[in-house]
Design brief:
Largest sheet: 2 strands, antiparallel
Helix content: 25-40%
Low-confidence stretches: none
Mean pLDDT: 86
Structural class: mainly alpha
Number of helices: 5
Distance between the termini: 36 Å
Shape: globular
Order of helices and strands: HHHEHEH
């Protein structure tokens, strides 16, 4: 992705002794899902297992394909959605590798998050506008070498917590 290329160029021009901030906001995965072929090819519709709560109504429509949503079209959309996520994961890995290769990984706070999930037929819906787990539970990753532990947490966390958390990690007071 061009945005990652620009981010890598920016990072390669930074020094370890001067603070900097980079915000990288990848667009996918949003409908219409259009991942690179190599990411899409990792997922096969016939091999996917939908969530147990996927219940498509006979006349269900949604933003995934802008047409009638059938179990078959939903699986195709799921493959493209997962392929889009995989493509973003690969780009994120490029950024982390650039930081580590430049010797900045130990002195850089990295945050990765998303603004929403995707219903993918759960509860009979597609899209993101509903307050269900599938739509609102999103990844939140923080890497601060030697500070943040590896693994998952069940701690309830919201966008309002990001700013004071980052201030704390950076060692600056929260205004």
């Amino acid at each position: 992705l061009l945005m990652t290329d620009q981010a890598v160029e920016f990072l390669n021009n930074q020094t370890k002794d001067k603070p900097w901030l980079l915000v990288l906001s990848w667009n996918p995965p949003h409908p219409p899902f259009n991942p690179p072929r190599e990411s899409l090819d990792m997922y096969k519709p016939e091999e996917l297992k939908s969530r147990p709560n996927v219940k498509l109504l006979p006349d269900a429509t949604g933003p995934l394909l802008n047409e009638l949503v059938s179990p078959e079209s939903l699986r195709v959309a799921e493959c493209a959605y997962y392929g889009s996520i995989t493509a973003v994961d690969k780009e994120f890995a490029r950024v982390l590798k650039t930081l580590d290769d430049a010797g900045m990984g130990d002195n850089t706070i990295v945050v990765y998050t998303s603004d929403h999930g995707e219903m993918m037929g759960s509860h009979g819906f597609t899209g993101k506008e509903l307050p269900h787990e599938e739509s609102c539970r999103v990844p939140f990753f923080v890497r601060d070498q030697g500070v943040t532990p590896m693994g998952n947490s069940d701690v309830l966390f919201s966008a309002i917590d990001i700013y004071p958390t980052l201030c704390g990690l950076a060692g600056i007071p929260v205004p």
